[in-house]
């Protein structure tokens, strides 16, 4: 009888561990997809989807300055910065409670001040689960060398 209880206990631990791992990787997949979708929405100038994603108090840090949600949406909609393509080379993600931080190493091709420019960045994105939706709280572009690697 003791052997059966021990085996049942071990089986229960395995099932709980697998369930936790699946849930965690499911959340990670959701955040990574959201991050990738965001790049496409920026390229498409889809401010309706971005407006829903960006928290009202979100902050955006670029090479030329920092601003809030309304200004970022205006920049995207007007095309004063057109995020034409973000080629994502590497992604790291950490989740703590209802907060997720994503680091993307990208090569960004953007139309800025009348010209296409290509720049290497590590972009830091901060998301927070609010009710049932993830909202972006911050997006920061850090200029890096193309040999830069994200530590996982």
UniProtKB/TrEMBL annotation:
UniProt keyword terms in alphabetical order: Signal
Signal peptide: 1-23
InterPro entries in alphabetical order: DUF4440, NTF2-like_dom_sf
Stretches assigned to the DUF4440 domain: 33-136
Keyword Signal: yes
Pfam hit, one: DUF4440
Official protein name in the record: DUF4440 domain-containing protein
Native source organism of the sequence: Echinicola rosea
Species lineage: Bacteria, Pseudomonadati, Bacteroidota, Cytophagia, Cytophagales
């Amino acid at each position: 009888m003791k052997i059966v209880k021990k085996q049942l206990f071990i089986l229960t631990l395995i099932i709980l561990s697998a369930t936790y791992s699946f849930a965690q990787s499911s959340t990670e997949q959701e955040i990574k997809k959201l991050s990738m979708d965001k790049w496409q929405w920026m390229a498409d100038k889809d401010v309706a989807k971005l407006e829903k994603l960006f928290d009202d108090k979100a902050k955006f840090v670029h090479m030329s300055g920092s601003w809030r949600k309304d200004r970022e949406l205006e920049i995207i909609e007007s095309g004063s910065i057109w995020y034409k393509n973000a080629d994502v080379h590497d992604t790291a993600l950490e989740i703590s409670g209802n907060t997720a931080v994503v680091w993307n190493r990208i090569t960004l091709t953007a139309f800025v001040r009348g010209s296409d420019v290509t720049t290497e960045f590590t972009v830091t994105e901060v998301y927070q689960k609010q009710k049932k939706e993830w909202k972006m709280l911050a997006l920061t572009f850090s200029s890096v060398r193309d040999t830069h690697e994200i530590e996982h």
